[in-house]
Structure formats: structure tokens, C-alpha cells
Known about the structure:
Aspartate Aminotransferase, domain 2, Aspartate Aminotransferase, domain 1, alpha/beta, 2 domains, 17 helices, binds pyridoxal-5'-phosphate, globular, five-stranded mixed sheet, 427 residues, single chain, seven-stranded mixed sheet
Amino acid sequence: xxxxxxxGFATRSIHAGAEPDPATGARSVPITQATAFVFKDAxxxxxxxxxxxxxxxxxxxxxxxxxxxxxxxxxxxxGVGATCTASGHSAQLLALFALMEPGDDFxxxxxxxxxxxxxxxxxxxxxxxxxxxxxxxxxxxxRKAVTPNTKAMFTESLANPGGVVCDIEKIxxxxxxxxxxxxxxxxxxxxxLCRPFEFGADIVxxxxxxxxxxxxxxxxxxxxxxxxxxxxxxxxxxxxxxSCGAYHGLNFHEKFGPMAFTMYGxxxxxxxxxxxxxxxxxxxSLTGAExxxxxMKKHADNALEVAKWLTTHSQVEWVSYxxxxxxxxxxxxxxxxxxxxxxxxxxxxKGGYKAGVKIVERCExxxxxANIGDTRSLITHPSSTTHRQLSEQxxxxxxxxxxxxxxxxxxxxxxxxISDLDQALRA
Length: 427
Ligand SMILES: *Cc1c(COP(=O)(O)O)cnc(C)c1O
């Protein structure tokens, strides 16, 4: 569909990027399970390789099924382009890879998915990239952490798992004053509930593994560019606005304008790092995306009901869900996620670590596993699983202390979800 920007969200969830297959008329997007694509002639091949023409060369860089999914997620976020990747973690790697050089730093929220804290704090060190973690609850903390080598700011819109809503608009302003882009991990609300570009964010990353795909059956990630950040406003972004040695001195910013960041993601990021999304996973994720707005509404409605019920339970110490009126993040949630504060939240159980472990073991409908964003309700005890690698202090500051239980509320009947938690809490 050529210009779909005026169509509604649900329509774009189903149609953006897709046409009936020109070869067969197939209405659902075919899975192009092919590694490479035939050139028309030698000139065509040369033009593709020098980025003079766009087209398919080799599926590490671009693939027809993956490309439809890229257009779909770019449209849903309101961006100009997207690069899809094998997982959410590789999307984070690709987003930062375009911006960072050895010796550079980026300022990140300390309320992130546990895996992101480990990726940023330990593994990225090997590239010479330094992360400076700050508490995002006061956006001024981002400003205080800026150094001359800062290249980006990074936060989650709704933080996993603490139920924290970040003030994206304020953090974006601070990032822009520092001359760097704000990258927002928008995995938890998905674009059905929150669209960070509307509040000044420059780049959105996703673990499409979670809600966008939505059925617990396909790993994937996406990096989406708003197209609004000027990479040539200062001399910080040499990869994007300098001459690229790997393409005979090509300057991505001059050549591709607002598509510079996305082109770099394919032509350098995927080409040289290689974390490509498979056509099969793109297909499953496209199918999932078709029902995104329906699913997110039901996820959020169920979550609110379960959260309200938990606040009345005698075995529950506290509930941290931004959709509850007494949450400190309620007002921010109304601003950034007016249609619901998502499906993932935490509560504190009386009895600490031991009680937390017992509840996850006693649940029957809830699956005890390390994932979120499935049709099925999921439960974890972060301090013994997803956040186990962190120190106790890091666990507490990430909202994953010993008494914390995390829920990802699914699409089952809410009465069944509640009765399962009730029997587990009583036991
Ligand atoms: C799961 C998750 C990731 C990592 O994504 P993978 O697809 O597992 O690599 C990043 N951020 C958030 C918020 C997540 O929930």
C-alpha cells in the first residue's frame, strides 16, 4: 500500500506493507524461504551492491517477507523505516552500532529488562562502549550524566518489570539539548498503546518476540527510525554523516536523507553483524500483528482487573501497575498509554523470596517461564530467574527485589486467571 499514513491503526496492522503476491495472487504474505535473488544483468547487480538501486540481493540484508514486516512495524510506530532483526537484543545492538565508536558512552535508564542491563553493562564493554545507568524517574538524571562522548539516551516506555512509566517527552528534550537521539524500547505497550515518536523519541526498538508477534512462537526484533533526527547537526555521528570506508566514501546522510539510519542498519549493521530475522519468523509475526490492537485492549483490560483484585488480597503486600489510580505513575500512564497500561506488572508477596518461589510453582493456568507478551498468562519470580545475574542492589533498583512476582496477563477469561492466582496465594 503506497501511502497508508491516513489509514487507522487497525487497518494498517493488517495491510501496511502488503499487497497480493504479484506472481500468484496469494492474499496472505508468502514465506519467501530463499537465501538469494537472481540479478537481471551485471549492471543491475552492480547497482544493487553500490546501493544505487534498492532490491533483494541476499537474505542476510533483505528478504521479501521480512521487508513486509519492516514496513508494517514502521507504519504502526509512525516511523519512516525499520530494520528487523533476529531478536530484541540484536535490535538494541544494531540501534547503538550505528551511533557508537569505541570510547563513547550512552545514558540508559536503570529500570530496564534484566537482559538489557547485562547486555549494556557487561557485554557492550567489549566494544569499548560505556553505559551510564540513571534513575529515569527524575528525567534530569539523564542531563546530569551527559559527557562529551555521549551518543544516545535509552529508556523503556513502560519498564519491565517495575510498572514504571517514563516521561518520554522530557527525556527527549534533554537528549536533543545534548545533540543525541532518544532510543525507546517500546516492547511492553507495543505501538497499539504507546507511540513514542509522538512525544519526541527518535528511534524505537522492539522485542517483537513479545506483544507484536504475540503468540509465544517467534523470536524477533525491530529498530524503527522516526526520520526526524538530523545526523549532521554536530560531528558526533561519523558512521551516518561521515564518509563510509566500506562503501567507497558514501555518506548515508547525504545519500539517503531521512532513510540514512535505516539504510545503515541493513547495509552495514545486518551485512556485517548478521543478526537477520528469518522469513518464517517474519511471517508468524505479521500474522500476530494483524490482531495487535484487539489483543492489546484485551490484555490491558484483563491486567487492570487482575491488578485491582490483587490489591484486595490479604497475602499481597503491594501491586505496581500504572493503570491503578493510586500508582505514582498513573498520570504519566494516562498521558503516554491512554488506552491501557499494558499487561505486564509486578506485585510483592508477603513472605519474601520463599513465598515468591512457591507461588510460581503452585500456579496451574499460569505458565512459569521467562517470557512476556503471549496469549497465555505467564508468571515469573525475577530475582530467581530473569534478574538473577544482577546484584541484590541492582535487582531492587530494577524493581525485581526478592518478594517481587511478575505477571504477563494473557487473553484467557479473567475469572480463570484470578481463580488460579487465588488458589496459588492461599496454598
Ligand atoms: C524480551 C525483551 C527484550 C529482549 O528481546 P529478545 O527478543 O528476547 O532478544 C528487550 N527489551 C524488553 C523490554 C523485553 O521484554
